[in-house]
Design brief:
Blueprint lengths: L2 H25 L9 E4 L2 E3 L1 H17 L4 E4 L11 E9 L1 H5 L6 E8 L2 E9 L4 E6 L4 E3 L2 E2 L12 E4 L9 H14 L2 E3 L4 H9 L5 E5 L3 H13 L3 E3 L12 E5 L4 H11 L1
Parallel strand pairs: 3-4, 10-11, 10-12
Antiparallel strand pairs: 1-2, 4-5, 5-6, 6-7, 7-8, 8-9, 12-14, 13-14
Helix pairs in contact: 1-2, 5-6
The protein binds adenosine-2'-monophosphate and calcium ion.
């Protein structure tokens, strides 16, 4: 796919995300307890996630015929193919169900398993983050960059606390303790896709979390890379998409932050 086609698809994907975002915003506060299912420990879902996913699949299939899907709610056949969308129709479901206003739609497109496009819509702030391979990263069409900061003491860090997989909690909380002493502070927003985009646009300096899925991070990871930042697994490699651990960091703190991660994990 050439750059023009990619740019086009990126714009269409933002439009699609906006359509479905309007649906999600309209459903806020309407889901009853009886309509909430528990998929696994602390992992919630409702008709809202599923309907949003069906809407996305329909519109993205029309935008790119013959594309296939990997989606959190599996409302469509999960396939591999040249062009594959990786979708989280509602990232931050727990926030959504508790009416905490941080939740997003995360959409990535891969060509032959390489991510070539990422769109994250933070629904309540109407902030659409987007990037395509070698095309730069944008927030509502304005170019964005990671923060130019190389001082850990000036940095604001995002993370996700473990909520179902406690195997590495010892290492996690040792690092956490270290970071509260060495940085300006730590935030837990509850949406990995939003955390990643906030690193991309310089609101956060770095982010780390383990036990995430590919649909939580695929779009945000490309957006960070295109904004001049870095994404790693905890060993400093690039197995962050399916490897269930991710670190995102601006350029100036790359070495120091990765060293901290590797000291603890
Ligand atoms: P989800 O809403 O799509 O499931 C942040 O920790 C990530 O974990 C989020 O992107 C969120 O994605 C997922 N998550 C699932 N259940 C969670 C919970 N109970 N608390 C926090 N995050 C949760
Ligand atoms: Ca989700």
């Amino acid at each position: 796919m050439d750059q023009n086609e990619l740019k086009n698809i990126c714009q269409q994907t933002c439009k699609t995300a906006n359509n479905v975002g309007n649906f999600l915003r309209d459903e806020l506060g309407k889901v009853s307890n009886q309509q909430i299912e528990t998929k696994s420990l602390n992992s919630l879902v409702s008709y809202v996630d599923k309907t949003a996913e069906e809407m996305l699949v329909k519109q993205l299939s029309a935008a790119l015929p013959n594309s296939v899907f990997l989606t959190e709610e599996e409302t469509v056949e999960q396939q591999k193919g040249e062009f594959r969308w990786i979708i989280d129709p509602l990232d931050g479901t727990t926030n959504f169900l508790h009416q905490i206003p941080v939740f997003a739609i995360s959409i990535a497109l891969q060509q032959n398993e390489e991510t070539i496009l990422g769109v994250v819509l933070e629904i309540n702030r109407k902030e659409c983050f987007s990037a395509y391979k070698n095309g730069g990263a944008f927030l509502n069409e304005q170019p964005i960059k990671v923060k130019a900061n190389d001082q850990l003491s000036d940095s604001l860090i995002a993370t996700g606390f473990p909520y179902y997989d406690f195997e590495r909690e010892e290492a996690y909380f040792k690092l956490f303790r270290n970071l509260i002493h060495q940085t300006r502070g730590i935030r837990r927003l509850g949406s990995a896709a939003v955390d990643l985009c906030y690193v991309a646009c310089g609101r956060f300096d770095a982010y780390f979390e383990y036990s995430l899925n590919s649909w939580d991070v695929a779009a945000g990871a490309l957006i960070i890379q295109e904004a001049g930042g870095h994404v790693f697994d905890f060993s400093g490699g690039n197995d962050f998409l399916f490897g269930r651990e991710i670190v995102a960091v601006n350029d100036g703190l790359k070495e120091e932050f990765m060293e901290l991660i590797q000291t603890h994990f």
